[in-house]
Amino acid sequence: MSYYFSFPAFFLSCSRFFCLDPDRVSVKAIQFITILCFVFSGSGLFANPFEKLHQEINETLPSGDSTVFRIFSNQSQEQEIHKLFSVGVNQTGEEEEVELASLGLPKYIDVSPVVSNTVVHESGIIVKKYTVQKKDNLSKIARSFSIDVPKLKKANSLTSDQLKIGQVLEVPVQVKNASSSRVILKKVFILPVPQSRITSRFGRRVDPFNKYNRVYHSGLDLAAKVGAPVLSSADGEVVFTGRNGGYGNSVTIQHKNGYKTVYAHCSQILVEVGETVKMGRVVALVGRTGTATGAHLHFEVIRNGKIMNPESALGMTEKHVTKLPKSEVAGM
């Protein structure tokens, strides 16, 4: 004998499988019980499918705080994404040093500022020493050195023309290289990103964000790959580091004679405020932070509070003169 259960079937009234009797459905008892068991025992199918995965991951993670982000969590997806982007990477100086070391970047990059290096000779009078030989006289000695007898006598405080064999005379001689100096011409500022490409110069230009508008560009844009080293253009002291509006991550360095240089849109900053830097110091890495259309360094030069054309500053030179020891002349 078979037992049947009958129940309203309004939820199946529109179903094509139960079109014969849309108001009621009859099911054998055994089949009905089987369906109920399947529904209640199978509720686990609707549980979080990643719960076991999380459990296994958590068991393998070290105890305590961890900077490892879980793939899934009990928090909402929006909270996870916000957490990921708000934390970022390389938040500590220690991690930054590790990354810098992994890139193989030195602290300084030697970029020679020397434009020319020459030795300049100046004409003048040098004093040669001459030992009187047998049959010598003042006239003969004066002629051999192309000077006048009165000058020879005056240089040696002689009151007569009498000379003694072995006597040492001082002979003033006019020469072309009486003194020598080394003259070195050096750049005041070096290009902060070696082997970069100029993409935008100082002055009025088309707004890169609105081609119908012309704006004044206050610096020099040097295109390079993200992570390329940014060098201090001259010796100085770091007076600002950090986020600076549309400039993004930027560095400002104070130099002598009222000059300042600005390095903007950097991906990383590698110096601190108050740090003394030399020309060629790696102060940052090229990036595209702030208002930037691509990876580049925005380089500015300011003198006594006024912005100047960076290319003019890069073209400036200064002369360094060093006196060399007096030339030695054979026979002196």
Structural commentary:
- With 332 residues, the chain is of the alpha+beta class.
- Among the domains are: 4-46, no CATH class; 116-182, Membrane-bound Lytic Murein Transglycosylase D, Chain A, CATH 3.10.350.10; 197-315, Glucose Permease (Domain IIA) (Distorted Sandwich).
- It has helices at 29-41, 51-60, 77-87, 93-103, 138-144, 149-156, 310-314, and strands at 4-8, 24-28, 114-131, 168-187, 197-200, 203-207, 210-217, 220-223, 229-231, 236-243, 249-254, 259-266, 268-269, 276-277, 282-285, 296-303, 306-308, 317-323.
- The strands form five sheets. Strands 5, 8, 10, 11, 12, 14, 16 and 17 form an eight-stranded antiparallel beta sheet that branches.
- Strand 11 and strand 12 (259-266) form a beta hairpin.
- The longest helix is centred in the N-terminal third of the chain and has 13 residues, at 29-41.
- It starts with a strand and ends in a 9-residue tail after the last strand.
- Mean pLDDT is 76; it is low at 9-23, 43-47, 60-102 and 327-332.
Can you tell me the residue ranges where pLDDT is under 50 for at least 5 consecutive residues?
Answer: 9-23, 43-47, 60-102, 327-332
Quaternary state reads single chain
Radius of gyration: 44 Å
Query: Mean pLDDT across all residues, rounded?
Result: 76
The SSE string, one letter per element, is EEHHHHEHHEEEEEEEEEEEEEEHE
What class would the helix/strand composition place it in?
A: alpha+beta
What summary fits the major beta sheet? 8 strands, antiparallel
CATH class of the domain at 197-315: Mainly Beta
| Helix percentage range | 10-25%
